[in-house]
């Protein structure tokens, strides 16, 4: 009955309603893409085309000069280095931070679901707390801790900060994923003679693809896009991309090279876009796997 | 001393004792089935033998070695789980050899053992597949292969057939029995299905409420159940247990039971030693197949009693027809030939094989006869 009546309605109200829905969605989509359009279009124009007005126009002269300049020769702070060294700074910070926090989150999830101990739920609750603490609160204590550990102003200091902050999220992801992972598999592996880490590496991790992708995307995006910790804790030679981009855009001397700024902003956003494009389809799958299966 | 000794073993979670003083000794090559309704403690006991659960008190010994506190992998046991628990990321071959690999067996030996087991279970063509690409029956075979390849002292089966459909379950049941006869291994098998218990086992432990209610061969359990729980749990349809009064006539004790119209039938017992119960109430246990029509009554029996009672419902099941009547105020099922002339609402002369009758004490529910 249900399906018959729905089909019936679908046929009668079909055409017009559907066209209307698509039209509205299309408009929303275009509106949403507008900033990207502005950024891309203006990053391939010579500066005088922008300052002359017509921000929305397509370029009359196409040039990649602003991209090259933003990457390798724009004035960042004192030196005309472009964003390039800071891009590598970011990579050096993001890759270990994402890897460490994901592995630790997976280990935490494994222990919290398969090696239960007294008070594990409370411990998990406390770890969840980390997801709700605003960044600003920890700035001063964290600065003091980094100083005491001799990590102030270093890339490893930033890695530590991001790992500590990310562990709450990664633990949450992996715990919920492993909660529905059959415990009989763990028991079978125990009888087979596999130890704690062997079970983790050989049985659990190979089955964790979807949730690992979720964790990596989440951590990568957050850490790459972080500005506050980078601005607060980084030294001159460990500043991440976001801080450098700010220094590029906010510089108060000389002409404002909008085309270079646009190109720089896109460069800063590219890695996260790339991660989404490569792993995005696993993202939704992983989110569903963690939540619905139980 | 048996091959596997479960010696006064108990299990408690906090202050709650879920398994009370279990005492079972299993000989080498025996097929012991732990059977009982869910929550009776049978899986807990199995997990304790496996080492997946701690033993609160008592001892479990395999080949006279105390297993308390010994890691599961060092007990030389293998377990087949209800969900099969095949590692989803490994091929069938890797699944089978994982345990050997963890025990440091060199690769050529692993391969050899794998092929032996695979040919025994006829799964050679599946060795390169992942478990996800197998059917239920195939997964079952792989799970058994994984257990067999270790050549363990004791096999533990945790409801291995529960996830299969009815037909496959019967096939695999036969398969397991064949395997046991061929290899002569010691098996402890947990199930809630009393037919599996009867068909597979050399001995059965019927469990309920954390106690072993009765331990014995399938025939003992079926013919002389220790109490009303065992009597009604084993057998399908269940044994009929109805209230009756004991009367003695010419030295022969009789069960006096109420028929549908309030009149009474007198069913003589084969055993004499019921004098102490004269005039008192008992619970009379009669298996459905011992109530038949007169023509189908067991010719070897020396004690066939007759009673005329009204048929309430008939349920033809192909090979048999199940007939329901009222006896002692309860519904009683008789298992008749399919061509017996039975019609609902009609009065019918039933033949009861009283040789097989069982009597229980209504207060303790324990068996008093035979």
TrEMBL record, chain A:
<comment type="similarity">
    <text>Belongs to the binding-protein-dependent transport system permease family.</text>
</comment>
<dbReference type="Pfam" id="PF00528">
    <property type="entry name" value="BPD_transp_1"/>
</dbReference>
<keyword id="KW-0472">Membrane</keyword>
<feature type="transmembrane region" description="Helical">
    <location>
        <begin position="199"/>
        <end position="220"/>
    </location>
</feature>
<keyword id="KW-0812">Transmembrane</keyword>
<keyword id="KW-0813">Transport</keyword>
<keyword id="KW-1133">Transmembrane helix</keyword>
<protein>
    <submittedName>
        <fullName>L-arabinose transport system permease protein AraQ</fullName>
    </submittedName>
</protein>
<feature type="transmembrane region" description="Helical">
    <location>
        <begin position="123"/>
        <end position="143"/>
    </location>
</feature>
<dbReference type="InterPro" id="IPR035906">
    <property type="entry name" value="MetI-like_sf"/>
</dbReference>
<dbReference type="GO" id="GO:0005886">
    <property type="term" value="C:plasma membrane"/>
</dbReference>
<feature type="transmembrane region" description="Helical">
    <location>
        <begin position="93"/>
        <end position="111"/>
    </location>
</feature>
<feature type="transmembrane region" description="Helical">
    <location>
        <begin position="20"/>
        <end position="40"/>
    </location>
</feature>
<feature type="domain" description="ABC transmembrane type-1">
    <location>
        <begin position="87"/>
        <end position="279"/>
    </location>
</feature>
<dbReference type="GO" id="GO:0055085">
    <property type="term" value="P:transmembrane transport"/>
</dbReference>
<feature type="transmembrane region" description="Helical">
    <location>
        <begin position="262"/>
        <end position="284"/>
    </location>
</feature>
<dbReference type="InterPro" id="IPR000515">
    <property type="entry name" value="MetI-like"/>
</dbReference>
<feature type="transmembrane region" description="Helical">
    <location>
        <begin position="155"/>
        <end position="178"/>
    </location>
</feature>
From TrEMBL, chain B:
<protein>
    <submittedName>
        <fullName>Trehalose import ATP-binding protein SugC</fullName>
        <ecNumber>3.6.3.-</ecNumber>
    </submittedName>
</protein>
<dbReference type="InterPro" id="IPR003593">
    <property type="entry name" value="AAA+_ATPase"/>
</dbReference>
<dbReference type="InterPro" id="IPR015855">
    <property type="entry name" value="ABC_transpr_MalK-like"/>
</dbReference>
<feature type="domain" description="ABC transporter">
    <location>
        <begin position="4"/>
        <end position="234"/>
    </location>
</feature>
<dbReference type="GO" id="GO:0008643">
    <property type="term" value="P:carbohydrate transport"/>
</dbReference>
<dbReference type="GO" id="GO:0140359">
    <property type="term" value="F:ABC-type transporter activity"/>
</dbReference>
<dbReference type="InterPro" id="IPR040582">
    <property type="entry name" value="OB_MalK-like"/>
</dbReference>
<keyword id="KW-0378">Hydrolase</keyword>
<dbReference type="GO" id="GO:0055052">
    <property type="term" value="C:ATP-binding cassette (ABC) transporter complex, substrate-binding subunit-containing"/>
</dbReference>
<dbReference type="InterPro" id="IPR027417">
    <property type="entry name" value="P-loop_NTPase"/>
</dbReference>
<dbReference type="InterPro" id="IPR047641">
    <property type="entry name" value="ABC_transpr_MalK/UgpC-like"/>
</dbReference>
<dbReference type="InterPro" id="IPR017871">
    <property type="entry name" value="ABC_transporter-like_CS"/>
</dbReference>
<dbReference type="Pfam" id="PF17912">
    <property type="entry name" value="OB_MalK"/>
</dbReference>
<dbReference type="InterPro" id="IPR012340">
    <property type="entry name" value="NA-bd_OB-fold"/>
</dbReference>
<keyword id="KW-0067">ATP-binding</keyword>
<dbReference type="GO" id="GO:0005524">
    <property type="term" value="F:ATP binding"/>
</dbReference>
<keyword id="KW-0813">Transport</keyword>
<dbReference type="InterPro" id="IPR008995">
    <property type="entry name" value="Mo/tungstate-bd_C_term_dom"/>
</dbReference>
<dbReference type="GO" id="GO:0016887">
    <property type="term" value="F:ATP hydrolysis activity"/>
</dbReference>
<dbReference type="InterPro" id="IPR003439">
    <property type="entry name" value="ABC_transporter-like_ATP-bd"/>
</dbReference>
<keyword id="KW-0547">Nucleotide-binding</keyword>
<comment type="similarity">
    <text>Belongs to the ABC transporter superfamily.</text>
</comment>
């Amino acid at each position: 009955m249900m399906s018959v009546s729905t089909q019936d309605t679908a046929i009668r109200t079909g055409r017009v309603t559907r066209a209307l829905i698509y039209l509205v969605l299309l408009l929303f989509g275009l509106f949403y893409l507008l900033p990207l359009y502005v950024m891309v279009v203006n990053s391939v124009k010579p500066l005088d085309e922008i300052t002359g007005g017509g921000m929305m126009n397509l370029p009359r002269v196409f040039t990649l000069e602003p991209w090259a300049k933003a990457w390798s020769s724009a004035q960042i702070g004192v030196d005309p280095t472009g964003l390039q060294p800071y891009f590598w700074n970011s990579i050096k910070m993001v890759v270990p931070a994402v890897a460490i926090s994901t592995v630790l989150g997976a280990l935490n999830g494994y222990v919290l679901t398969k090696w239960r101990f007294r008070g594990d739920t409370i411990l998990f609750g406390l770890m969840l707390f980390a997801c709700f603490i605003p960044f600003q609160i920890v700035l001063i204590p964290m600065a003091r801790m980094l100083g005491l550990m001799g990590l102030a102003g270093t890339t490893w200091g930033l890695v530590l900060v991001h790992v500590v902050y990310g562990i709450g999220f990664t633990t949450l992801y992996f715990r919920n994923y492993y909660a529905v992972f059959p415990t009989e598999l763990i028991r079978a592996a125990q009888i087979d003679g596999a130890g704690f880490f062997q079970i983790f590496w050989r049985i659990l991790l190979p089955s964790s693809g979807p949730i690992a992708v979720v964790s990596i995307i989440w951590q990568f995006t957050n850490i790459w896009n972080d500005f506050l910790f980078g601005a607060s804790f980084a030294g001159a030679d460990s500043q991440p991309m976001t801080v450098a981009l700010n220094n590029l855009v906010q510089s108060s001397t000389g002409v404002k090279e909008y085309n270079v700024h646009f190109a720089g902003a896109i460069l800063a956003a590219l890695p996260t876009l790339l991660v989404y494009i490569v792993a995005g389809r696993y993202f939704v799958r992983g989110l569903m796997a963690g939540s619905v299966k139980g | 001393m048996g091959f596997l000794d479960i010696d006064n073993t108990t299990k408690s979670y906090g202050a709650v004792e879920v398994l009370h003083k279990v005492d079972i000794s299993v000989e080498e090559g025996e097929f012991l089935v732990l059977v009982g309704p869910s929550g009776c403690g049978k899986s807990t006991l199995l997990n304790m033998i496996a080492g997946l659960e701690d033993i609160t008190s008592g001892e479990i010994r395999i080949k006279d070695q105390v297993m308390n506190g010994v890691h599961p992998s060092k007990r030389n046991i293998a377990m087949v789980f209800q969900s099969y628990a095949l590692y989803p990321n490994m091929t069938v071959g890797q699944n089978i050899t994982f345990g050997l690999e963890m025990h440091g067996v060199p690769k050529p030996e692993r391969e050899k053992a794998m092929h032996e087991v695979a040919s025994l279970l006829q799964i050679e063509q599946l060795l390169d597949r992942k478990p996800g690409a197998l059917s239920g029956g195939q997964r079952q075979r792989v799970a058994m292969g994984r257990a067999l390849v270790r050549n363990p002292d004791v096999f533990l089966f945790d409801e291995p057939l529960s996830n299969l459909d009815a037909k496959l379950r019967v096939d695999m049941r036969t398969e397991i029995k064949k395997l046991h006869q061929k290899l002569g291994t010691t098996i402890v098998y947990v199930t809630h299905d009393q037919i599996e218990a009867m068909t597979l086992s050399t001995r059965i432990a019927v469990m309920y409420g954390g106690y072993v209610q009765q331990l014995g061969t399938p025939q003992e359990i079926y013919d002389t159940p220790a109490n009303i729980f065992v009597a009604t749990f084993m057998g399908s349809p269940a044994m009929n247990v109805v209230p009756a009064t004991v009367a003695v006539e010419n030295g022969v004790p009789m069960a006096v039971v109420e028929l549908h119209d309030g009149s009474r039938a007198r069913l003589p017992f084969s055993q004499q030693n019921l004098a102490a119960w004269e005039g008192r109430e008992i619970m009379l246990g009669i298996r459905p197949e011992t109530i038949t029509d007169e023509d189908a009554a067991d010719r070897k029996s020396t004690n066939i009693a007759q009673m005329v009672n009204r048929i309430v419902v008939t349920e033809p099941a192909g090979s048999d027809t199940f007939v329901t009547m009222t006896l002692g105020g309860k519904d009683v099922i008789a298992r008749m030939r399919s061509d017996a002339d039975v019609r609902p609402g009609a009065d019918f002369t039933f033949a009861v094989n009283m040789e097989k009758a069982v009597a229980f004490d209504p207060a303790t529910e324990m068996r008093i006869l035979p």
